[in-house]
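TL;DR need C-alpha cells for one chain.
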Amino acid sequence: MAVSLGAVLAMIMFSTIVPFLSQSLDNAVSELMGTDGDEELSPTYPANGASVATTTITLSWDAQADAEWYDVRISDDSSMPSPSLFTAIKSSIAITGLEIGATYYWQVRPVEDGKRGSWSEVWSFTVGSASGAPVPTSPVDGTVFIDELPVLTWTSVPYSSEYWVQVAADEGFTTILIDVEVSTSSYTIDQALEENATYFWRVAGNDDEGWTEWSVVSNFFISPTTIQIRQAWTFYADGSDWSLSINVSAEDYYEAKTTTRTLMFSVNEYAEYVTTTDAVVVEVAGILASMAESRNYDEYTTACFVLSFVQNLRYTSDEETTGYEDYPRYPIETLVDGGGDCEDTSALFASIIQSDAFGMDAVLVSLSTPTSDVGHMAVGLYLEGVPSVVTYTNDSTTYTLMESELLSWEVRAYRFGTGYRYYYCEPTSEMPIGWPTDIEDWYYTLIAC
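>> reply
TL;DR here they are.
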C-alpha cells in the first residue's frame, strides 16, 4: 500500500481543493463574504517566472498577522478564466499533480472576519528543468509505502539512452544504498529497505553531450506494517503503576492521517473526531476496562482512571508537530503520536469512555474566555455514582471537596433525557473529574458526540 502524504498536505486542515471554480462564482462568493481591497499580499516563492524541476511545488507569500486563512487561485491561463481554488491556514500551500512543460499563474489574498482582501499580483512559474535534467514524477514527496517497495518514475530526457538512479539514506547522498543505470524512465526498487525510515532519490540522464545534472531530490517513507503503542503511567488515586502496549495497523493509522481536514465553520464539527467504534479505540478501551475491574474501581474512579491514561499523554502544539495552527487528530493518531493538544485528547477520552467497554455518556466542551480569544477544549461526562467527598493529593498536599463543589453542568443528557449533570474532565493535566480550575467563568459550548 502506498499513501501519498504530499497530496494530502496540499489539502490538510483548512486547505480544501475546489477545482475549476469559475471566475464568476468566485466573484459572487467575494460579494457575499465582503472584500477589503487594502489587504494585498506579496508572493515570495517560487520567484516570478521561475522554472521549477518538480511536479509538486510549495507556493508561499508574506504572512498577514490578522489573517484567519488565505484564498489561493492557480490557472494555466494568466487571465484566470476558470482557476482552481485552494484555502490555506498558513502562508504556504503544497500543490501537487502539475504537468511537465506547463506554465502556471497564481494569486493569493487574505481573509479576516469574513472579509476578503484584494488578490495579489499574478506570479507565474513553469514546470521543467532549466538544466535539462529529468524531473521526478512519482512517488510524490512524503509518500508512505506499507508492505511494498516504490516504483520511481521521471520525465524522459531527449536523446537519452540511459538514466542514472541513486537512492540514499540521507539528503546529502553520503550513504548511497542503490546506484544503478537503467534504459527506461522508471526503476522498480528490488532490494529490501529498512522500515521506519525516509529515503531520498535522484536521477540524471545521458544525452548526446553526456550526463545531465542531477534532478531535484525527492523522498519517500518505508513504514512497518504495524506500529506499537506503549504508554506507562501512575494513577494518582491509589498510586498504582500501569502500562499498556498494543500493535496497531500502519494502514489504519495512515488512512486517518491522510484524511482531508476541511475548513471548520463551527466547533460542533470536532465531534467528527470522536470515534467510539474504531478498532484501536475498542481495543484500548477493553484493556483499560479490564484493568479497572481488576481493582474493583467504582464508576467515578473508573472514569478517573481512564482520564488519567489520557492525561499522561504528552501535550503537543499543532503548529510545532504539523506546521498548522489547528490540526485535529483522530484518536488513532493521538495514540500513535503519543499525544496531542486539548482537542485531540478530548476526542480520545470521549471516544474511549463512550465505547461499549464503558458505555458512559460524554460531550465535548468548547471553552473561551470572556475577554480574549483564548480557547480550550475538555469533556463533560455524565456520572451517577459521584462520591459525596472527593480527595486529591498533589505535590504532597491533599485537597478535599464536597460533591456540590465539583465543576459540572446540568443539561439535557443526550442518551437519557433532561436534567442530567455532566462533570468537567480536564484532558491535558492530571486532576480528578470535576475538579475546579480557573475556567469556571469562561463561556462554554457543549457538543454532542
